[in-house]
Design brief:
- The complex is a heterodimer.
- By secondary structure, chain A is α/β, with parallel strands linked by helices.
- Helix content of chain A is 24%, strand content 28%.
- Chain A has two domains: 2-168, Rossmann fold, CATH 3.40.50.620; 199-311, Rossmann fold (3-Layer(aba) Sandwich).
- Chain A has helices spanning 18-26, 44-51, 72-82, 95-108, 214-223, 231-235, 266-269, 289-292, 301-311, and strands spanning 2-7, 32-40, 56-63, 88-92, 112-116, 118-119, 124-129, 134-139, 146-150, 166-168, 179-186, 199-203, 226-229, 256-260, 277-282, 295-298.
- In chain A, α8 links the parallel β15 and β16 (295-298).
- In chain A, α3 (72-82) crosses α4 (95-108) and α5 packs parallel to α9 (301-311).
- Chain A is globular.
- Chain B contains six helices and 13 strands.
- In chain B, the strands form two sheets. A nine-stranded mixed beta sheet of chain B has the order 9-8-7-10-6-1-4-5-11, with helices on both faces.
- The longest helix of chain B has 15 residues, at 38-52.
- The radius of gyration of chain B is 21 Å and the shape is globular.
- Chain B starts with a strand and ends with a helix.
- Chain B has helices at 38-52, 70-79, 95-109, 128-136, 189-195, 236-245; strands at residues 3-7, 10-12, 34-36, 58-65, 83-88, 113-117, 140-150, 153-160, 163-170, 173-177, 200-204, 217-222, 231-232.
- In chain B, α3 packs across α4.
- In chain B, β7 and β8 form a beta hairpin.
- In chain B, 46% of the residues are buried.
- Classes of the chains: A alpha/beta, B alpha/beta.
- At the A-B interface, α3, α4, β5, β7 and β8 of A face α3, α4, β7, β8 and β9 of B.
- β16 (295-298) of chain A pairs parallel with β13 (231-232) of chain B, so a sheet runs across the interface.
Chain lengths: 313, 249
């Protein structure tokens, strides 16, 4: 038996799809018994969603007003208190999990496995390093809890036909008040979320301006796609930071990815490698993006993209 | 505040196309250009700007690794750090030990603020700041894109998946920095000469008397799975046809 405590990610009202992907990863461990921990101010809906996920044994629900949009410093000591008796403590490799899980690991006195892309054995995992230029097999020490983040782009969400029991728990942990979230400014977009969208259209510096990016939005709207960007486009200020795809941004795995005016530096490519089909539109036929593209077209994006948008009408 | 401590890691340069060794023991580093981890360079730039605004007295850079890291520390001194400390050990030290070593130095120096890069571009772990803050029992503000200090607190804008999160932390605290915080300055030749005279202390890791931590071992490095070679199309009609063939439209 391998007892897994999996930390649910949510926005205060609904469960993030990263959790269902973490469950898929945890379920690869032989004999996994997966408990999902929901720490929230109001946990009923989130817990119900977690309880519906296949492979989940039970949901542990910790309701506390302090857990509403809580920083890692508030969540970590509670998770440490809950982790007693578990062999694994998993979370997603989103900014939520990346922020939280190493804090949990350190409090438990263990190292952390970041970005699990496959489970190879009870303590053996594969993970990407050097912006995805290498994949390393790592062995976590036996006899200690394995604290890890899951590279969510490597997993398909489990189904949701389950009805696991939901148990309300109290945790005894000292919660600090030295860290206070003032506000969250969301990219308030009606478009599909970049990390869960089936289709993503992304633009690079070649778009030239914020206005130039309208071409990307028009095509994305036609496809019902999420919108992403290269680091260069975000650095240039054409789009918000939360659209950045790559080593230091979001790692995505849509069925269809269309890269427009993106040269395809390795740091970008590592964020799209798991896409089903990659389409590249670029005026430079030598651009490295064509090395990973399934379908490529060389030409001026300012002609090709409107033409493509029209062709999809 | 008095002191800011900045962590610097020596890594394979950002522009190097990394190759896996044929025996799977690691990646090729012979004759490969090494640099300061780019995120750590941003952390140092931020510390220098805080000091230049008169909000801190001293910037101390610290690396945990082999003697080779003295080269990167000298570069950090040339950028403007006041002094450097190298905690000497093997390069492949585990993250928890590294965090403990940085914390021990932080405590010895009584630093008020620790600035680190949000991740190292070699192991891509993104762990040290969070671990340090946990062990210290102090706040962490990771993935910072703005930092403003005000007496005993800092207000940090964090780049998160949902957008931007603004957080207030009491000092002392650990902040890990993201790409868009600032543009690190270029080092000028006279500064390189001056840096040679700045103090760089070596402390053997063993002298810090840290507890042993269970390390994660790397057993095999492999190149990533390659994608199959794609096809080029001549025009938009060809692109739409290819997408239709794959059932994607």
């Amino acid at each position: 038996m391998a007892r897994v405590l999996l930390i649910a990610e949510h926005d205060g009202s609904s469960l993030n799809s990263s959790t269902a992907k973490c469950v898929a990863c945890a379920a690869q461990i032989d004999g996994a018994e997966i408990d999902v921990a929901v720490l929230a101010a109001s946990a009923a809906d989130i817990s119900a969603a977690a309880a519906s996920l296949d492979s989940v044994k039970r949901v542990l629900c910790v309701e506390n007003p302090l857990n509403g949009n809580a920083p890692a410093a508030v969540l970590a000591p509670q998770i440490v208190a809950m982790a007693e008796g578990y062999d694994y403590v998993f979370g997603p490799s989103s900014t939520f999990g990346k922020d939280l899980m190493p804090r949990v690991a350190a409090l438990l006195g263990v190292n952390q496995v970041s970005d699990i892309m496959s489970v190879e054995g009870s303590h053996t995992f594969k993970r990407p390093v050097y912006a995805g230029n290498a994949v390393v097999t790592v062995e976590a020490p036996a006899g200690h809890p394995v604290v890890a983040t899951v590279r969510i782009a490597s997993y398909q969400a489990v189904g949701s036909g389950n009805s696991a029991p939901v148990e309300t728990t109290e945790v005894a942990a000292e919660i600090p008040d030295h860290t206070r979230i003032v506000e969250v400014q969301s990219g308030q977009s009606d478009r599909p979320d970049l990390q869960t969208a089936g289709r993503v259209v992304a633009g690079g510096r070649a778009l030239g301006s914020t206005e130039g990016f309208d071409l990307i939005y028009q095509l994305a709207d036609k496809l019902g796609a999420g919108v992403g960007a290269s680091r260069a486009a975000v650095d240039a200020g054409y789009v918000a930071n939360d659209t950045q795809i790559g080593q230091t941004g979001k790692i995505i795995a849509p069925e269809l990815y269309i890269a427009i005016g993106i040269s395809g530096a390795i740091q970008h490519v590592t964020g799209i490698k798991d896409a089903g089909t990659i389409v590249a539109i670029n005026k430079d036929e030598e651009a490295p993006i064509f090395e990973v593209a399934d379908i490529g077209i060389v030409g001026d994006l300012f002609n090709l993209v409107p033409e493509l948008t029209d062709a999809l009408s | 505040m008095d002191k800011i401590l900045v962590g610097l890691k020596r890594v394979v340069d950002y522009n190097v196309r990394v190759r896996v060794k044929s025996d799977g023991s690691g990646v090729e580093t012979d004759g490969v250009k090494m640099s300061i981890n780019p995120f750590d360079e941003i952390a140092l730039e931020e510390a220098l700007q805080i000091k230049e605004r008169g909000e801190a007295n001293e910037v101390i850079i610290v690396s945990v690794g082999s003697g080779d890291a003295q080269q990167q520390l000298r570069t950090g001194l040339a950028m403007g750090a006041d002094r450097a400390i190298l905690v000497e050990c093997q390069d492949s030290i585990d993250a928890l030990t590294c965090a403990r070593a940085l914390l021990e130095v932080t405590n010895r120096e009584n630093a008020d603020l620790v600035l680190l890069g949000k991740q190292a571009i070699d192991d891509d772990n993104s762990q040290i700041a969070q671990m340090m803050a946990a062990l210290w029992g102090r706040p962490q503000a990771t993935f910072a894109s703005t930092v403003a200090t005000d007496g005993n607190t800092a207000r940090v804008t964090r780049e998160v998946d949902a957008g931007l999160e603004i957080v207030d932390v009491d000092l002392p605290a650990v902040i890990s920095v993201d790409l868009r915080l600032n543009e690190p300055r270029y080092v000028k030749l006279p500064d390189i000469m001056k840096a040679k005279k700045k103090p760089l202390d070596l402390i053997p890791l063993a002298d810090l008397s840290l507890p042993a931590s269970p390390a994660i071992t790397d057993t095999l490095y492999e190149p990533p799975a390659a994608r199959e070679k794609g096809t080029m199309v001549d025009d938009v009609a060809g692109l739409v046809a290819a997408l239709n063939d794959k059932g994607l439209l």
